[in-house]
């Protein structure tokens, strides 16, 4: 029997995923064809990008899993026609890329790279910079990505605090939960990193009030999802001098519109949604793993809790 | 009995070191006075900066240890009057600062921070950057600092190679030694980090020939010692397009003279000797530790091998 796997994603990525997934499954003794169209009633798995043409899951009566290509599921989790198991992409390449991006920008702010890379006055000021151990990084969201970043930042010597909806425990991380916990987590943060899932509850988590809980001179990193920041409040906090800087990788509209005030703001760095880029090779391996698990009767990894929304 | 500890270092740091060292020793039950001048025949230890007024160690007949305030000993190790044990500064603050600087600049080059922080055309190019696991960092010098940086870079996912005079073995690091080893270590390096001791043998280790062993598009980080780079060869390698960039923290003359071609070179970033800054509090703790060891008849840590020069 040959598995029918529908690829509902970007045309440009089709061949790469097809080859990697078919080869990976064949190595495990599973025959499969990855195709771009097929009789829905005969589809076993869907490799899925939420912005693809597939929006009605009703005809996929035999489908045993919808394998999301994105880490975020906010654009599919509310689809009422989706009754099949939905799994998030947890791509080791994506995780490492995120760890690299978050660690790099934390160190950039700690050591004031921007002052060194743009120094037309040739200023030589050898005051020792702070050590990572002098700074606290607070991570909002302690899922797979938040956890991995926390571990990496601890290795660099940072003090790390974290906040999540449900109370978590992670070695070496001061973990907080709930509204009071958020205030405490923000209070002593030199850098706040946004890695929350995108749900109605996390929209605008960074607003005028919560920015007020951060100490003066703090920094924001947003490699998570755009809507978590109230854009105008962030710009206000920069302009009044309360915040020292922000590096943003995700936005409500992408590419970020050319007339958006984030562009060209002296305290804001825009990066083009690269922190959480899925890498085809490592992502395909994780799709293959989950299909093998399901075919062997094991639960798939990273299944989405539909009631929580992530 | 009270220990007499001569402080031969910068005036501005005297009081801080005096207080930290006297308090630290008192906590261990040792009475000590840290002073800026004393009868040499009665001095037990010297806390020493190689650029201080003390250059003749002959009269310090009772001195049991010269505790260098710098990680580098090249300016004292050749002093023929020095017969007392000499120890290098291994300051946990200095080590962490170095790890932060090296990791940060490796990630900066990997993720092209400079293109993002200076982007007047508002270019949005979301091609996924390489992962740290796609790049090799080669560390020249595998002493305490090189070893710590290797470990941190491995944690960030980089492939790490290392080169040292004597063959070493470090988990996860491809270790090389000798002239042939140097060539191999440089061959596949995306980034080369210079952390060798400053000896006549390491001068100009980065020259036209060794730069030629690096692949096109590589980067150099020098947080070690200025003379290890042949400045003109480095600039040539930038101007011909062979190297993509360099970040230099140390120079033959510091501050770097205003008319030096490194300043303002579009591919070179100058940082003001901050990577290996000794932090008074953590450095004082390591001085205290060594004095306690010596008073208890234990060998001091980080003693200099006078024949090797470091």
Q: Could you characterize the architecture of this molecule?
A:
2 copies of one chain form a homodimer. With 310 residues, chain A is of the alpha/beta class. Chain A folds into 2 domains: 108 residues, 3-Layer(aba) Sandwich (Rossmann fold); 179 residues, Rossmann fold (3-Layer(aba) Sandwich). Chain A is built from 8 helices and 12 strands. A 7-stranded parallel sheet of chain A has the order 8-7-6-9-10-11-12. Chain A has a 5-stranded parallel sheet with strand order 2-1-3-4-5, with helices on one face. In chain A, α1 packs across α8 and α2 crosses α4. The first copy, chain A, is elongated. Chain A starts with a strand and ends in a 15-residue tail after the last helix. At the A-B interface, α2 and α3 of A face α2 and α3 of B.
């Amino acid at each position: 029997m040959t598995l029918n796997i529908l690829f509902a994603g970007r045309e440009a990525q089709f061949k790469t995923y097809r080859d990697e997934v078919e080869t990976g499954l064949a190595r495990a003794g599973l025959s499969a064809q990855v195709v771009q169209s097929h009789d829905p009633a005969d589809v076993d798995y869907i490799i899925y990008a939420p912005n693809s043409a597939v929006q009605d899951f009703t005809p996929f009566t035999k489908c045993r899993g919808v394998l999301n290509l994105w880490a975020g599921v906010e654009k599919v989790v509310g689809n009422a026609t989706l009754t099949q198991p939905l799994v998030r992409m947890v791509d080791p390449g994506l995780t490492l890329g995120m760890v690299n991006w978050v660690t790099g920008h934390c160190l950039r702010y700690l050591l004031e790279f921007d002052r060194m890379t743009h120094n037309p006055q040739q200023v030589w000021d050898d005051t020792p910079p702070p050590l990572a151990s002098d700074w606290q990084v607070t991570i909002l969201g302690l899922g797979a990505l938040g956890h991995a970043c926390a571990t990496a930042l601890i290795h660099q010597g940072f003090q790390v605090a974290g906040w999540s909806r449900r109370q978590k425990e992670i070695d070496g991380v001061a973990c907080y939960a709930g509204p009071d916990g958020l205030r405490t987590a923000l209070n002593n943060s030199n850098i706040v990193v946004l890695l929350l899932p995108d749900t109605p509850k996390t929209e605008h988590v960074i607003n005028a009030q919560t920015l007020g809980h951060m100490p003066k001179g703090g920094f924001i990193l947003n490699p998570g999802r755009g809507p978590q920041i109230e854009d105008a409040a962030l710009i206000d906090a920069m302009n009044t001098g309360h915040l020292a800087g922000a590096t943003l990788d995700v936005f409500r509209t992408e590419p970020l519109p050319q007339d958006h005030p984030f562009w060209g703001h002296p305290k804001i760095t825009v990066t083009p949604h690269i922190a959480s880029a899925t890498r085809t090779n490592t992502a395909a391996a994780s799709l293959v793993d989950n299909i093998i698990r399901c075919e062997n009767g094991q639960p798939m990894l990273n299944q989405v809790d539909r009631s929580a929304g992530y």
